[in-house]
Amino acid sequence: MPKFVDLPCLPNRFPFKGSAIWIHLGNSMPRTQDELLSYLQGLGISVTTVSHPPLFTVADSQALRGEIPGAHTKNLFLKDKKDNFFLVTVEEDATVDLKQIHHVIGAASRVSFGKPEALMELLGVVPGAVTAFGLLNDKAGRVRFVIDAALADQEIINAHPLTNEATTSIRSQDLVLFARATGHEPSILKVTT
User: What predicted TM-score, i.e. pTM, was given to this entire model?
Assistant: First the structure.
C-alpha cells in the first residue's frame, strides 16, 4: 500500500487553517493516458482512442455502441485471502460466478473485490476506470492478468486508457503483446458462465 505522512499545516506557513498535507512516500505517480499511448507506440502497437464524457459503469458505456466497434470490456479487480491480486477482463455483458472463479484462476481462496487503495497502488486507476492497460503501472508484477477466452477470440478489444474519459481500441493479440511487455503473462481462461 502507498505510505502517506500526515503533516499538520503550520498557521503561519499555510493558508489553510486546520488542513493537512499528504506526502506520498511510496510508488511513483501512475502513468497517464499520453504515457500509455506513447508506450504502445514504442511497442509498434497501433490503437485508436476516442474521448467521451466519463463512464463509470458498463451501462454508461453502452450508450457508445455503434460509435466504437469491437468488444467492450468489464474488468474485475479481485484478491484472495493471501493478498494475491487478479485482474480479470471479460466482455461487458458476460456473467462471472464470483463464488467459483477462484478455482479457475488459481486463487488461494474465494475472492473478493480489491479495495480502491490497492487498485490505485497496483494499477494506478480508480474504480470506474479499471482497465487492462493499468498493468503498465504494476511494475512489481503483483497482479495476475486473466483474459476470458471468449474475449480473447475477438478481433478488437476496447478498454479505458487509464482514464474513464476515453476508450482505446486494440487488436486482441496486441493486448497480449502489451501485457507481456509489462511483465504480465496473460492467462487466457474460460471464466464466464
Answer: 0.83
Q: In this structure, are residues 189 and 105 in contact, taking their beta carbons and an 8 Å threshold?
A: yes
Residue labelled with grid coordinates 499511448 = 37
Residue in the block written with cell 479505458: 160
* Torsion sign over Cα 90, 86, 53, 182: negative
Cα–Cα distance measured from residue 14 to residue 79, given in angstroms and rounded to the nearest whole number: 40
The set of cell numbers assigned to 113 is 473485490
Secondary structure class of 149 (helix, strand, coil): helix
Query: What are 107-130's pLDDT values in tens digits?
Result: 999 999 999 999 999 999 999 899
Burial of 18 (0-12, 13-18, 19+ CB in 10 A): exposed
pLDDT tens digit sequence for 51-81: 988 877 777 777 766 678 999 999 999 999 9
Query: How far, in Å, CA of 83 to CA of 29, rounded?
Result: 22
Query: Does domain 28-189 match CATH 3.20.20.150?
Result: no
Question: Domain extents for the chain?
Answer: 28-189
What are the cell numbers at 165? 474519459
Cα–Cα nearest to 164, from 60, 71, 45, 93: 60
Instruction: Label residue 190 exposed, middle or buried (CB < 10 Å: 0-12, 13-18, 19+).
Output: exposed
- Name the residue among 59, 63, 95 with its Cα closest to residue 76: 95
User: For residues 124 and 26, what is the distance between their CA atoms, to the nearest angstrom?
Assistant: 12
